[in-house]
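Continuing the batch. This is chain 6 of the set; chains 1 through 5 are on the previous pages. Same settings as before, nothing changed between runs. Recording input and output for traceability.
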Amino acid sequence: MPEQSDSAANGGLVVAARQLWFLVAAGGLLGAVVSLAVAFGAGWLGYFPGASDARIHNYLMAHPRVLYDMARKAEADQAEDELHQRQAAIDKLGMKRFFSPAVAYVTGPANAKNTFVEFFDYNCGHCRNTFPTVLKFYKAHKNDTRFAFIDFPIFGADSTGAARAAVASRRQGDLYLALHFLLMGEAGPINTELLYADAQKAGLDVTKLSADVMDPNVDRTIAAAHKLAEEAQASGTPMFIVNGKVHEGEITETELNALLKS
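Output for chain 6:
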């Protein structure tokens, strides 16, 4: 059977591209995107020894590593782009928005040389994994850093219930921090029973807390936190902003200190 002409081969690649993009749209397959990029792009530019679908297939089978390398590079590039977009959104909002008492529990010197913001969910495993680092940082810098703790529940009804109680506890002053640290230090899911047990351990007036939770302003505070997170392009928890620089996901002590110096 004669070799395909270049135009016929390119036409076959276009058809294959359309079919693969359909799969991507239907299932969100990163691997399909990478395969499409390699097969279509490399074939179109003549990097393969031939233009037929069979030869492209054979090349990819002989060099599968290129797909993994491209997948990692695509993910890294996407993460970098999202970071830049998120940072631009935060710069546009200005740090004052994150330190509003209508959104955050704010503590630390008003004229502090450093600032620290955290969006979190009490049932977020990544938040809990990072908690020892955050607690150590807080203890070391509570006298030179302005902190904003923002309750941002995204993991269902129990998370929302915990956030509502935490927001209500702000009316009892520094006892909010005692409750916050207890909840973040828990190993299991935060449900109503555990929530109020920790509230009692923190020294809160549980009767007052139960009444304050019902105030509509509590829900307004949580709604404001969600709106701010959306504007800041937060995609999950935890999200940190240290001295104006954003970091999303778990953070190490080294990374925190680097942000502090940036």
